[in-house]
From TrEMBL:
Organism: Blastococcus saxobsidens (strain DD2)
Superkingdom: Bacteria
Compartments where located: Cell membrane
Domain Cytochrome oxidase subunit I profile: 26-548
Designated name of the protein: Cytochrome aa3 subunit 3
Length: 853
């Protein structure tokens, strides 16, 4: 087959390798299936269940908050001086519209796409941490419901999706409405980070043998970048939300300028999340388009390597332009120049993607099916939004257009064109694969044209009315300013969009009931998921495929052909094991199998853990703070039960026998490699959160000429130094224990663990005693607020590490670990070394910093 064209009309069944035992697939299907009935709904962890739930719940919140709110707002603004709704209700509508769209719709839908599609696309049987995926869904659902429960108490947030202080602070929003916003969306943010960890490890470690990084689908590259961005962007938002809730609920002074705080600190923390969030939503949309466009033009994507580089470039650059939204706050000109340059530079990698798609279309032969129509609509609308984005990247222009309807029009062109259209394209494209039925093409075209026309009619006039001076977030406007006709046209556009969404909903419902059956590969696509039946089996792949191309279904006659060692391995795994859920881990770069491990079974503990998380946030909402302690206890107990060691389903000798025959280690007690990667990502999360707190500390310090403030002495070093020494010595004891068990010295192994627990625990106790005896003033000044918050963060992280160490000591005393099976020791050692670094940096900042100035 040539490099420039592909015969996509062949029999897709030929791509599925033969299985020697016909009963094997059914036996594996039963093994991987979730339990039936209500028990399965509560304990299910299968990626298809979790992925579909995320997508469907995201669409539910879209209909609830994205469509209804926008319709009412546009009806209110259709004519001047209307009173269809009150000003207060209008404020609630635009706050809900922005918050729901940014937090509860787009990202959960894309994370659902990833969890649903990636195992089949990458040639794996499951995601690496199925229980973590289930936890991410439950926290997203509970967070969304907690946020929406504000309507039941008539306490709907009304401060915008950005919740700027002081408007969102205790002085101007004293009721619980903003607390619903902070705490409800905070729970959902925890779920987003959990799903991000799942996606990163799934892409890096769980791919088909032979699928190197340079053979990965662009979809996987896009979602990998997205998931890393989630860790770096959502974590500062969680810290910012924590500081805001401390101001509101505990009387701290982070954002009160009269007491050492700064209202701009919130904007910095929020937009470190907020602007990358736009690209967190855009990049997976790019991945969806990058999969669909080549299939419908019958041509390979032009410039694969450049395309991957552009994705990574956007991921990095997006964190260099958060002050793009703060040009009007009075930042120094040099700072404005830097962020303006970064805001313009990010258009370069986006341009690489656009020209790659245009070149691919030019070289191919388009087939005008509904998914491709939405892709073309995306290209047109997003380019318009990108052009206006470059305009607002210019400081002089932005100072004129800031907080006008020009920005509203730009934002909706970017988000609807750049995100919503790819979502619809993805649903039409993958719906046949995971439902077994084709969505109706005639209804699909009506769906597209109504949305495409409606979006342009609704949002193009906003640019003009914004240039004419109409401010955003206004409830009404006076007649005679020339704004009337543009607002009426925008309202007509929304009235066109609404039936377009209605047709989509009807198309889905109709297809589920009596849609046309879909074969395995109705589009003639090139990636692995289309080699599976529609819908796929519960375990996806009975025999792992062998990948030798970026487009395996276009280039490979069979997926069970490769070098002899790989062929022997995949055939062996296709027949064994049949009593436990086995999945393959591959090398990150070369795609060679490096481990076979046991994937988690269904469990109730992700649900109970999510319940504990939401209980902590709910207890703070209603100010019953002992409830937070109950929630923490539930989390600790559930996580321990979640990770309780299970008896391995095979002996070490049987594992060695498989390794001798196939050349790949077996870890039936759980993956060593996946667990190590998960630990490193957990350390990364802690590091980002700690960095956000350090940023807050030093920002407030720069804002205050006297630090500590007058009347507050420098904290004494004595007990803090003793605590630091004890914690560092304790942290060093865990790697010592790890080395001892690796050498088979069980006595020194246990002794090292006991010493580590005793020393580190003593250090934490000493530090807590020191914090209690200090009289810094928690609520008197921003210095005391950040002092105790930063110290409390370090202590809480250390206590979590102590709980993990205590459980390792308990399991070691029961003889759980052997010279062969001791991966948890290595992971706890890594965690404690990172903990020691955080402890030293944190308390050096708090205790030595003031003393050195």
């Amino acid at each position: 087959m040539s490099e420039t064209s592909a015969d996509t009309g062949g029999d897709p069944g030929r791509y599925t390798p033969e299985v020697s035992d016909p009963g094997t697939a059914e036996e594996l299907n039963r093994l991987w299936d979730d339990p039936p009935g209500l028990r399965g709904q509560l304990t299910g962890v299968q990626n298809d269940l979790v992925g579909k739930r995320l997508v469907l719940t995201g669409f539910f919140f879209l209909l609830l908050g994205g469509s209804f709110d926008s319709l009412v707002m546009r009806l209110q603004l259709a004519f001047p001086e209307q009173e269809l709704v009150s000003p207060q209700f209008y404020n609630e509508l635009f706050t809900n519209h922005g918050s729901v769209t940014m937090f509860l719709v787009i990202l959960p839908i894309f994370e659902g796409f990833a969890i649903l599609i990636l195992p089949s696309m990458l040639g794996s049987r499951e995601m690496p941490f199925p229980r973590l995926g289930a936890f991410s869904y439950w926290t997203f659902l509970f967070g969304g419901l907690l946020y929406y429960s504000s309507a039941l108490f008539q306490l709907v947030p009304d401060v915008g999706w950005f919740a700027y202080v002081p408007l969102s602070g205790p002085e101007y929003s004293p009721d619980l409405a903003v607390d619903f916003w902070i705490l409800g969306l905070g729970v959902a943010e925890v779920g987003a980070i959990a799903a991000g960890v799942e996606i990163i490890i799934g892409i890096l470690k769980m791919r088909a043998p032979g699928m190197t990084l340079t053979r990965m689908p662009l979809f996987a590259w896009a979602f990998l970048v997205m998931a890393f961005m989630i860790l770096f962007a959502f974590t500062p938002l969680i810290i910012g939300s924590l500081l805001l809730e401390l101001d509101r609920g505990f009387g701290t002074q982070f954002f009160d300028p009269e007491l050492g705080g700064s209202s701009l600190l919130w904007q910095h923390l929020f937009w470190i999340f907020g602007h990358p969030e736009v690209y967190i939503q855009f990049i997976p949309a790019v991945g969806v388009v990058a999969m669909i466009l080549p299939v419908f033009v019958r041509h390979r994507p032009v410039g694969y390597i450049w395309f991957v580089a552009s994705l990574v470039g956007i991921g990095f650059l997006s964190f260099a332009l958060w002050a793009h939204h703060m040009f009007a706050v009075g930042l120094p000109p040099l700072v404005l120049s830097f962020f303006a340059a970064a805001s313009m530079a990010i258009s370069i990698p986006a341009g690489v993607q656009i020209f790659s798609w245009l070149a691919t279309i030019w070289a191919g032969r388009p087939v005008w099916k509904t998914p491709f129509l939405f892709v073309i609509g995306f290209l047109i609308i997003f380019v318009i939004g990108g052009i206006t984005g470059v305009m607002v990247a210019s400081v002089p222009f932005d100072l004129q257009a800031h907080d006008t309807y020009f920005v509203v029009g730009h934002l909706h062109y970017v988000l609807i064109g750049g995100v919503a259209f790819p979502i619809f394209a993805g649903v039409y494209y993958w719906f046949p694969k995971f439902s077994g039925k084709l969505l109706d093409e005639r209804l699909g075209k009506w769906n597209f044209w109504l949305l495409f026309i409606g979006v342009n009619v609704a949002f193009l006039p906003m640019h003009q009315v914004g240039l004419m001076g109409m401010p955003r977030r206004v409830w009404t406007y006076a007649a005679g300013q020339g704004w009337d006709i543009y607002n009426l046209i925008s309202t007509i556009g929304v009235l066109i969009i609404v039936p377009g969404i209605g047709i989509f909903v009807w198309n889905v419902v109709r297809t589920i009931r009596r849609g046309e059956p879909a074969d395995a590969n109705p589009w003639g696509a090139d990636t692995l998921e289309w080699a599976l039946p529609s819908p796929p089996k519960q375990h996806s792949w009975t025999q792992p495929p062998i990948v030798r191309s970026r487009h395996p279904l276009w280039d490979q006659e069979r997926l069970d052909r490769g070098d002899p060692q790989l062929m022997h391995f995949v055939r062996g795994l296709g027949q064994w094991p049949l009593k436990w859920r086995a999945a393959v881990v591959v090398g990150t770069a070369d795609g060679r199998p490096v481990e076979v491990f046991r994937v988690s079974n269904p469990s109730i503990w992700p649900l109970t853990t999510a319940g504990g998380v939401v209980l902590i946030f709910l207890a703070e909402l209603v100010k019953i703070r002992w409830g937070a302690a109950v929630g923490a206890a539930i989390i600790i107990a559930s996580v321990i039960a979640w990770n309780w060691p299970q008896p391995p389903p095979m002996t070490p000798d049987e594992e060695d026998e498989f390794e001798r025959e196939y050349g790949v280690p077996v870890n039936a007690h759980g993956s060593v490699i996946v667990a190590r990667t998960g630990t490193l990502l957990a350390i990364l999360f802690v590091a980002v959160a700690f960095s956000a707190l350090l940023l807050s500390y030093f920002y407030l310090r720069l804002e205050n000429p006297q630090w500590p403030p007058a009347g507050v002495s420098d904290p004494p070093l004595g007990l803090a130094a003793v605590a630091a020494v004890l914690v560092v010595l304790g942290a060093a004891g865990v790697p010592f224990a790890h080395r001892q068990i690796a050498q088979g010295d069980m006595r020194n192994f246990r002794g090292g663990l006991y010493a580590a627990l005793l020393l580190a625990g003593s250090g934490v106790v000493v530090q807590v005693v020191d914090l209690v005896r200090l009289d810094v003033g928690w609520t008197a000044h921003a210095y005391g607020s950040i002092f105790y918050t930063l110290a409390g963060f370090v202590v809480v992280v250390a206590m979590a590490a102590l709980i993990m160490l205590a459980m390792v000591v308990f399991w070691a005393s029961r003889g759980t670990y052997t010279y062969r099976r001791y991966a948890p020791i290595a992971n706890v050692a890594r965690l404690w070394m990172a903990m020691a670094v955080v402890w030293v940096l944190g308390f050096a900042t708090l205790y030595l910093g003031p003393a050195l100035t």
